[in-house]
Specification:
Layout (H helix, E strand, L loop, with lengths): L2 E4 L5 H9 L4 H6 L5 E20 L3 H6 L6 E10 L5 E3 L6 E4 L7 E2 L5 H19 L5 E19 L9 E6 L10
Length: 180
């Protein structure tokens, strides 16, 4: 199956090194008797949403700075199709087409698009209100499906019925950070 995915920037050896980089008391308590047994490439479906935000100047800007008229801004949000979490995107990594990906390595979206759009609008409204003021009018311009690559490091033997210890490592080299 051919998929559109973010470019893989972390190769398997680098991901193995990150997976073996154990440290800290909590890590040693959870993974004390487990060794790295398997590395697997995995793709999770994300939704890339583009909103157009239209908002009026606040009363302070109108009174003191004499700003009038509506302002428009394009906002890009990235929604995880597995967990339903939504994040503001500052800059997008390069999107490439990856050919011949096995169906076992792909995890399609579990969440409905309407729910992801609703969550994206909520986060965008909160961020714009916090930074600019006022309540923006958000309109969905485009929604597209893109896959995000991960390396999954498994610790211990993978046996049906037993708890599996694993660590996902983002293969695109990007991270998600809170705005608060």
């Amino acid at each position: 199956m051919d998929i559109r995915s973010f470019q893989i920037k972390i190769d398997k050896k680098e991901a193995e090194h990150m997976a073996l980089d154990k440290g800290g008391f909590l890590w040693n308590a959870v993974f004390s008797d487990r060794n790295l047994t398997k590395m697997k490439r995995h793709f999770i479906e994300f939704k890339l949403m583009t909103f157009e935000a239209t908002y009026q100047p606040t009363w302070i800007e109108r009174y003191f700075k004499h700003k009038t008229g509506t302002r428009k801004q394009l906002i890009t949000m990235l929604a995880n199709g597995s967990t339903g979490s939504v994040a503001w995107v500052d800059s997008l990594p390069e999107v490439v087409t990856i050919e011949d990906v096995e169906d076992d390595d792909i995890q399609l979206s579990d969440q409905e698009e309407d729910l992801l759009i609703k969550r994206g609008k909520k986060i965008a409204t909160q961020v714009i209100h916090r930074h600019i003021g006022g309540v923006p009018n958000l309109e969905l311009m485009e929604i597209e499906s893109v896959f995000r690559p991960y390396w999954i490091a498994f610790y211990g033997e993978v046996i049906v019925g037993n708890k599996v210890r694993y660590k996902p490592i983002a293969a695109d080299g990007c991270g998600t950070f809170r705005t608060r």
